[in-house]
């Protein structure tokens, strides 16, 4: 039986609790980039108006459209200003210097990986350097995030500020860390105590409380509530049924 | 519910657009300077945010019927226009394919949102049916969802009856849960074995020793609830949309934090639940 909160691979719960990297790429598709069309085209009216496309002059379009145009050889993609080697070096220095995350677009990992795989020839001379810098930045940020989660686990019930974290970096947070922190909260006994307090507020003082094991559970998993031992005055009631 | 036909569900819910699209400024940071961008996102970004919120939240959130209705109506009308346009010629085919891709993207978002909600309904069907009134009034459950819940339970009960024809005992808590386990498990043999094991375990350890008052799954006698509620103590990642002020996150440790617009936190869902339901904090 899977432990509380941790989804079994392939189970229904695992598909619900997080977004897959492909879905994140879909969400990143709406970020704007600049393209240089190779042919002219009239305006396109999507949710906003893009164009008119004049061969040779820069136009701002959503990323999904840019990738599509690039794949059909109708345009080349300009390197976003934050993704140049100089800018990435500044970001890496800032990441190493400070404890908080540096300023990067929310979908920076998806955008950069898409652009480097599809349009590497458009990104300029320093493509390899960019790849190395991006990897370094990713590692530094990941280290900060792991440390933050570790500190939170010590407190067993706290809030961790994660301003400017990236979308892809949140994937392990949503699955693994969330489950781990929930378990820590459970084990610490705070969950059981809070539940008892809630039930005592809601019903009469002689409530059975949250100490009774829950049968069945959300997501098709059996959740054994082993967190808190039943308070003394309720143990006597349980004994009657043995 | 792999037999669930998304298209059928969508067709059932097409209704004429009523409320206007709410325009919202985009929350996320922009990368390249918006050279020729006009007032964008509106309903589509809201739809995506709604989908992401539903995935992250442990319980059913408010149903965004104004967005979904608008999107569904647009999907069908624009698709019809596109189908006509495509047959005009090869140049138009190219343009039409670009528009078609955007339409596919919107359709994907809508499908994902509805699918996530359906999944949550299936998962918490007993809880939802016991609290129907409260969920309907707070807007978290649309009428269609409530009907769907009823159908799921009826189907589950029918399936149990056909499988256990010889047993004449009334439905007890353990047996209902066995239905539930077997219903969502995809392989019948695994479900049956698991069901029998769990049933036997619950029967011998708990149910046989409880008085009849506790036998019904809906029983709340003495405050004990057998239906499990969605776990609101999971940790979620949230972004503060509007200033919320000071929120107490732990009664025991007396810790409070101030939530200002633009901050992102990893924290327990329960303290911020009300803010998520009314939209001043969104889950990412």
From TrEMBL, chain A:
Residues 206-242 are annotated as: Disordered. CDD domains: GINS_A_psf2, GINS_B_Psf2. Residues 82-184 form the GINS subunit domain. Residues 20-77 form the DNA replication complex GINS protein PSF2 N-terminal domain. It is found in: Nucleus. InterPro entries: GINS_A, GINS_bundle-like_dom_sf, GINS_Psf2, PSF2_N. It holds the Pfam family Sld5. Keywords: DNA replication, Nucleus. One of its GO terms (biological process) is double-strand break repair via break-induced replication. Belongs to the GINS2/PSF2 family. This is DNA replication complex GINS protein PSF2. It comes from Tribonema minus.
From TrEMBL, chain B:
GO terms for biological process: DNA-templated DNA replication; double-strand break repair via break-induced replication. One of its GO terms (cellular component) is GINS complex. Keywords: DNA replication, Nucleus. Transmembrane segments: none annotated. It is found in: Nucleus. Residues 1-37 are annotated as: Disordered. Residues 230-284 form the DNA replication complex GINS protein SLD5 C-terminal domain. Coiled coil: none annotated. The GINS complex plays an essential role in the initiation of DNA replication. Belongs to the GINS4/SLD5 family. This is DNA replication complex GINS protein SLD5. It comes from Tribonema minus.
């Amino acid at each position: 039986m899977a432990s509380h909160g941790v989804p079994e691979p392939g189970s229904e719960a695992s598909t619900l609790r997080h977004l897959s990297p492909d879905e994140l790429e879909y969400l990143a598709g709406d970020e704007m980039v600049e393209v240089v069309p190779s042919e002219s085209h009239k305006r396109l009216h999507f949710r906003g108006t893009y164009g008119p496309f004049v061969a040779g002059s820069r136009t701002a379009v959503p990323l999904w459209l840019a990738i599509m145009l690039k794949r059909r050889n109708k345009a080349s993609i300009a390197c976003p200003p934050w993704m140049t080697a100089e800018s990435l070096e500044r970001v890496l220095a800032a990441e190493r210097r400070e404890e908080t995350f540096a300023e990067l677009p929310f979908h920076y990992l998806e955008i950069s990986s898409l652009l480097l795989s599809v349009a590497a020839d458009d990104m300029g001379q320093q493509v390899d350097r960019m790849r190395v810098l991006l990897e370094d930045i990713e590692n530094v940020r990941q280290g900060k995030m792991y440390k933050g989660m570790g500190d939170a686990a010590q407190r067993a019930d706290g809030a961790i500020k994660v301003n400017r974290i990236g979308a892809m970096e949140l994937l392990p947070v949503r699955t693994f860390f969330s489950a781990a922190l929930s378990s820590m909260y459970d084990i610490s006994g705070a969950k059981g105590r809070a539940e008892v307090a809630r039930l005592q507020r809601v019903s009469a003082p002689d409530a059975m409380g949250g100490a009774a094991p829950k049968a069945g559970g959300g997501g098709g998993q059996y959740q054994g509530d082993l967190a808190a031992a039943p308070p003394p005055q309720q143990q006597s009631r349980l004994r009657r049924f043995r | 519910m792999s037999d669930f036909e998304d298209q059928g569900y969508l067709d059932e819910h097409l209704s004429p657009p009523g409320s206007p699209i709410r325009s919202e400024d985009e929350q996320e940071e922009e990368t390249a300077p918006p050279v020729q961008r006009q007032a964008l996102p509106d309903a589509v970004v809201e739809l995506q945010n709604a989908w992401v919120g539903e995935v992250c939240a442990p319980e059913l959130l408010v149903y965004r019927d104004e967005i979904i209705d608008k999107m569904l109506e647009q999907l069908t009308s624009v698709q019809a226009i596109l189908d006509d346009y495509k047959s005009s010629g090869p140049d138009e085919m190219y343009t039409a394919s670009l528009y078609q891709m955007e339409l596919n993207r919107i359709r994907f978002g809508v499908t994902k949102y509805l699918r996530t909600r359906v999944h949550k309904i299936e998962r918490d069907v007993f809880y939802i049916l016991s609290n129907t009134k409260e969920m309907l009034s707070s807007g978290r459950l649309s009428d269609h969802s409530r009907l769907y819940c009823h159908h799921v339970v009826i189907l589950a009960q029918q399936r149990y009856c056909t499988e256990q024809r010889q047993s004449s005992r009334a439905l007890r808590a353990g047996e209902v849960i066995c239905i539930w386990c077997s219903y969502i498990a995809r392989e019948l043999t695994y479900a049956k074995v698991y069901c029998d094991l769990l049933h036997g375990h619950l029967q011998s350890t708990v149910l046989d020793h409880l008085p009849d008052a506790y036998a019904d799954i809906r029983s709340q006698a003495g405050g004990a609830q057998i239906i499990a509620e969605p776990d609101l103590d999971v940790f979620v990642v949230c972004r503060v949309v509007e200033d919320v002020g000071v929120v107490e996150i732990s009664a025991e440790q007396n810790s409070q934090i101030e939530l200002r617009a633009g901050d992102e936190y990893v924290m327990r869902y329960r303290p911020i639940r009300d803010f998520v339901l009314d939209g001043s904090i969104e889950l990412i």
